[in-house]
Amino acid sequence: MTASQQAHHRDGIAACFFCQQRPADPSAAYPVPMHRGLRRGSTGPLQQVSYQSGSVPVPRCAACRGAHDREESIRRYGKLAGAVVGAALGLVIYTVIPEHQATGISQATWFEMDKNSLTLMLCLAIGALVLGLIGEVVAQIVAARSLPAETQPTEHAPGHPDVRAMQDQGWYPGDKPSG
Ligand SMILES: [Zn+2]
Question: What is the pLDDT of residues 65-113, one digit of tens each?
Fold first, then answer.
């Protein structure tokens, strides 16, 4: 335990669980959703299960919340950015396809027009799909690196003692199953 942590303990303020350095800000707590199944009427082949759900606030400081929010938006927009760039690249590839260049739209027959628009759609779709996937992978890496060295990722949250205590009482981390 560091000197600053000891100081927080003395003052009764929990340290942020993610950086273990700064004091936690109650408004910045990270909620870990939890659920547990409750069996009802255990007779017969069909067993009804109802779920109880809630969340455990894991102490977090404002700086770590900012870092987590930034990481989340990098992940979210990475795929989208990749798809947009991919579609643009698909359009560029389409315009440099020799067949297309040879076929002026003005002299094209309906069949050629159709072939052209099909090629265009294919170029856009493949470009968006491929670069969307690449964007997603790159975003994962960039997002993970965007966190300051002292800040643990949110995946770390279920390791908090309060979450573990709930697990001992039959609770599971995560949202309750749908249905
Ligand atoms: Zn922190």
Answer: 999 999 999 988 888 888 898 989 888 888 877 665 555 555 555 556 6
58: CA distance to ligand 1 center in Å? 11
Q: How far is the CA of 129 from the centre of ligand 1 (A)?
A: 37
Q: How far is the CA of 19 from the centre of ligand 1 (A)?
A: 4
3-state secondary structure 64-116: HHHHHHHHHHHHHHHHHHHHHHHHHHHHHHHHHCHHHHHCCHHHCCHHHHHHH
DSSP designation for 14: P
Q: What residues make up the domain containing 120?
A: 3-36+48-161
In a domain, 179, yes or no: no
Residue 10 domain flag: yes
Model pTM above 0.85: no
71 located within any domain: yes
Q: How far apart are CA 78 and CA 91, in angstroms?
A: 20
